[in-house]
Specification:
The structure holds three protein chains of three kinds. By secondary structure, chain A is an all-alpha fold. Chain A contains six helices and no strands. In chain A, helix 1 crosses helix 6, helix 2 packs antiparallel against helix 3 and helix 5 packs across helix 6. Chain B is an all-alpha fold. The longest helix of chain B is centred in the N-terminal third of the chain and has 38 residues. The termini of chain B are close together. Classes of the chains: A mainly alpha, B mainly alpha, C alpha/beta.
Chain lengths: ~220, ~210, ~280
């Protein structure tokens, strides 16, 4: 009798290692192993998404209220169910018109909450923090630089006015601040990608080949 | 054809903006209910995406296009994982959970891990100090790459403080300006949608 | 062809091999370079450490396998911190592939600190909709999560008793690789005034410094390095700290390649007399 339960972790590791090497084979050149792994990933990711949606959204928020709820709950649940079905019916060109109601509801909802959300968190809060009095000492130098950076970067992105004269100088300084910010982002991006590679190599060397201790 | 959906967008958008300012419990219940409906509609929209994906690959199979074997792989994987999750659930140690740990997780991680190699190659080939701006970008990136890792302190003890300053002052200023710009852009787009000025999301009117 | 030109035409597979060796060698022969905890990670640690006894911490773990290398160690370290302080932990995810990662992370942290599901922590599972979930939870958590990930009604879970909405949450900890962070700041912090600590991938960490300055965020843990710093602060030796030697070496390799490329370019141009 094959002890599947005991062998499951080993099978999982070997399958994961095989698929990892299939993807890494792309570094040499495109090949059928890579394409197999790529298509397997695309299909299984979409399938996993569907399964999780079904179990964690549709069952508790649609099926259960419809089958066990009071009439008011059933009525309130029927509305989003209808909108959702109209959304899915968009697969057929005949239902493009009715599907617009579902899209309109969805887009209207997210537009409504976007207005107040962005206004409070990204505009008002950031402007309020930018126009605080400068702290004493060296903090004043940093705060002044920060304010100059903010104004010059905004000047750079203000394309309605030609970048000449004072605006031109401001935009130029703004570009320098942007370059520093993008350089910082690039450095961190390298760090992020290398971290992901370290984890995969760690898996191959530790969990698969046992060349590194497990703990 | 369009008027009904446009009115719906206006009503829903305006109601949600208004409800932000009304602390009344009943009003917030309405808010929560509308948002729950949007969550459910979103779940169905994801189904639409998966069906569309299947359609793309099925067309390749029907036309016997080059690489159609791999389209079979994608479709079989999609159907199998969906059925596994629907029938046996998605909890720990379920067949889907085991499949996820063996297949999805390593594939997703490795796809992104590949980028480390390409970013190193791209940095070697494209990162050139051609002018003042490019030099600023290059120097900042190098300072960040060395200064933020353990070896940076060995090379020069001032690296950690320099990287903190770069992040706290020039980076903060630029990112704040971008955040304000993005915020204003998002608000204007949302208002255009609510007021019916922007209608492209509804598709072409016949 | 001059040496400079040969360097400029270097086969990219040689670069790939250098990166691969730079990653593998330090893992096989670790040096354990020391790690310094940066101010932003220290601020995150202090924010959690100084919460009153018996506090409830809400974790929103919004990431998928592609970024788990950076965020999974963070999740385990921060959760262990909360468990050590005997805080109640409520976790959820807004990403469909999140449960497959979040559940093992919570289990690892709970087993290490001898904590029991439902009594000390709850995992609510996945819900789609981002903003709608965040705003909905402001009124009632149960409206978004009627049952937990395992199908147990929230009213039957001891740790969830008395927790109706954000009013009973002391701190929000969001670990994410996406715009979920922006939405949490907009809604949980902006609308409901909840204190928040963010753990982000290194790619997006630099974008959130403005929110630290405005105190919309009380701490920021960025990437695997940030996770390693938090592990150091917790006196743990997890996957993040193990990877720091490799991180250092690959960064040095990339930096040397960039410098080499520029030196070769200038030498080549000088050789041909062009600018």
């Amino acid at each position: 009798m094959i002890p599947w339960a005991q062998m499951a972790p080993t099978i999982t590791v070997w399958v994961a290692a095989f698929l990892t090497l299939c993807v890494f084979s792309f570094l040499y050149k495109d090949n059928p192993f890579y394409r197999f792994a790529e298509h397997l990933f695309v299909g299984s990711a979409a399938g996993y998404l569907l399964a999780v949606q079904y179990q964690n959204v549709i069952i508790p928020n649609v099926w259960l209220p419809l089958t066990t709820g009071k009439p008011v709950t059933i009525g309130l649940t029927a509305i989003p169910l209808l909108l959702g079905l109209l959304m899915v019916a968009r697969i057929s060109p005949r239902f493009t018109g009715p599907a617009r109601w579902a899209i309109a509801f969805y887009v209207g909802t997210y537009s409504g909450i976007a207005v107040t959300g962005y206004m409070q968190a990204q505009v008002l809060a950031q402007v309020a923090d930018a126009v605080k009095p400068f702290p004493p000492g060296w903090g004043a130098v940093n705060a002044a630089l920060g304010l100059i950076g903010l104004l010059t970067v905004i000047a750079y992105f203000f394309f309605s006015v030609p970048h000449k004269g004072v605006v031109g100088v401001g935009a130029r300084v703004g570009i320098w601040f942007l370059m520093v910010a993008f350089g910082a982002s690039f450095g961190y991006t390298v760090m992020a990608r290398v971290s992901l590679l370290i984890a995969r190599v760690q898996f191959l060397l530790r969990d698969w080949m046992h060349l590194i201790p497990m703990s | 054809m369009y008027l009904g959906p446009l009115v719906l967008t206006f009503v829903v958008g305006t109601v949600l903006i208004a409800l932000y300012f009304i602390p009344n419990h009943a009003a917030q219940e309405v808010n929560a209910q509308l948002l729950l409906w949007a969550t459910i509609v979103y779940a169905f929209a994801l189904i639409l995406g998966s069906v569309s994906l299947m359609g793309t690959h099925w067309r390749k199979i029907r036309l016997r296009a080059e690489g159609s074997f791999f389209s079979w792989v994608a479709i079989v994987a999609l159907v199998a994982t969906t059925l596994m999750g629907v029938v046996w659930g998605v909890a720990e140690k379920s067949p889907l959970d085991r499949f996820y740990n063996a297949v999805n997780s390593p594939l997703a991680s490795t796809m992104f891990a590949l980028l480390a190699f390409f970013i190193a190659s791209a940095a070697f080939r494209a990162f050139r100090a051609r002018n003042v701006e490019a030099t600023l970008l290059l120097v900042t990136a190098v300072v960040m790459m060395i200064g933020r890792v353990s070896i940076g302190e060995f090379i020069w003890p001032g690296f950690p403080a320099l990287t903190e300053w770069l992040l706290d002052v020039p980076n903060l200023a630029a990112k704040r300006a971008i955040a304000i710009g993005v915020g204003l852009g998002a608000i204007s787009t949302a208002l255009k949608i609510i007021l019916g000025i922007e209608r492209s999301y509804l598709g072409r009117q016949r | 062809m001059s040496l400079a030109d040969r360097i400029l035409r270097l086969d990219r597979r040689i670069i790939f091999i250098l990166v691969a060796l730079g990653t593998a060698l330090p893992l096989l022969v670790p040096v354990n370079l020391p790690i310094t905890v940066t101010p932003r990670v220290e601020a995150a640690y202090d924010t959690i450490d100084q919460l009153p006894a018996g506090s409830t911490v809400l974790f929103s773990l919004d990431y998928e396998p592609d970024v788990s290398a950076e965020l999974q160690p963070m999740t385990v370290a921060i959760m262990r911190h909360c468990f050590r302080k005997n805080f109640k932990v409520v976790a959820l995810t807004l990403y469909p592939a999140g449960p497959g990662l979040v559940e093992p992370a919570i289990r690892i942290a709970a087993e290490a600190e001898h904590k029991v599901r439902n009594k000390d922590y709850a995992f609510l599972g996945y819900k789609s909709g981002f903003q709608t979930v965040m705003i909905g939870m402001g009124e009632s958590i149960r409206s978004q999560f009627p049952v937990d990930f395992y199908g147990t009604p929230l009213d039957s879970i001891p740790v969830m008793r008395g927790i109706r909405n954000y009013g009973e949450i002391a701190l929000l900890v969001n670990l994410t690789a996406s715009s979920a962070a922006d939405y949490w700041i907009q809604f949980a912090v902006g609308r409901y005034r909840k204190p928040m600590v963010l753990g982000a991938t290194a790619v997006m960490a630099t974008d959130y410094y403005p929110y630290l300055s405005s105190k919309q965020l009380l701490g920021l843990i960025g990437g695997m390095k940030g996770a390693a710093e938090y592990e150091k602060r917790m006196d743990l030796f997890g996957d993040a700290r193990r990877g720091m030697d490799a991180q250092s070496l690959v960064h040095v390799i990339v930096t040397l390649l960039v410098i080499l490329g520029n030196v070769a370019l200038f030498a080549s141009r000088r050789g041909t007399g062009t600018r």
